[in-house]
Design brief:
By secondary structure, this protein is of the alpha+beta class. The protein has one domain: Roll (Nuclear Transport Factor 2, Chain: A). Helices cover 43% and strands 20% of the residues. The chain is built from five helices and five strands; from the N terminus they run αααααβββββ. Strands 1, 2, 3, 4 and 5 form a five-stranded antiparallel sheet that branches. Helix 4 packs across helix 5.
Length: 152
């Protein structure tokens, strides 16, 4: 870990112990976009969770992985984005929000995937000591940084 990573690590650990309502949505950095989504999960705020994601870019990336020509069709991208958002909303309503209660999480440095897409490694430790590591992708568009799901 280098010296510039320490403040971000400490902020991540610090935020994990705060009530989510004390963290206002902020889409100026990839890390803050992730924290905004996680705060929305903690608050069980569906609209804030939707606002922290970019379903249009997620749709474009998904279509690109299927067929490059599909990713150039604005109508198909729009319809796919709508389905992705509706599916996300349905999942949150039916299965509930991910449980971030008690987790201590830290975010690594963003790694550039493309000029507008980065990957951030998040490490979380639960109160019982179980640890998880997840790659989170964040897209920088006209509205700032937003979380996207990228199919591997």
């Amino acid at each position: 870990m280098n010296a510039s990573s320490l403040p971000k690590l400490l902020v991540g650990v610090f935020l994990a112990g705060l009530p989510a309502a004390s963290f206002a949505a902020d889409f100026t950095t990839p890390e803050n976009a992730i924290r905004s989504l996680e705060a929305a999960y903690i608050d069980e705020d569906l609209e804030a969770a939707v606002a922290a994601k970019d379903f249009t870019e997620e749709a474009r990336l998904m279509l690109l992985s299927i067929n490059a020509e599909f990713s150039k069709d604005p109508d198909l991208i729009g319809k796919t984005a709508n389905v992705l958002e509706l599916s996300f909303r349905k999942e949150m309503k039916e299965s509930g929000f991910p449980d971030f209660g008690g987790l201590k999480c830290s975010l690594g440095e963003p790694e550039e995937v493309t000029a507008t897409l980065v990957k951030v490694v998040e490490r979380c430790v639960s109160p019982d000591g179980n640890a998880t590591v997840e790659d989170i992708h964040v897209f920088n568009g006209a509205e700032g940084w937003r979380v996207v799901v990228v199919q591997d």
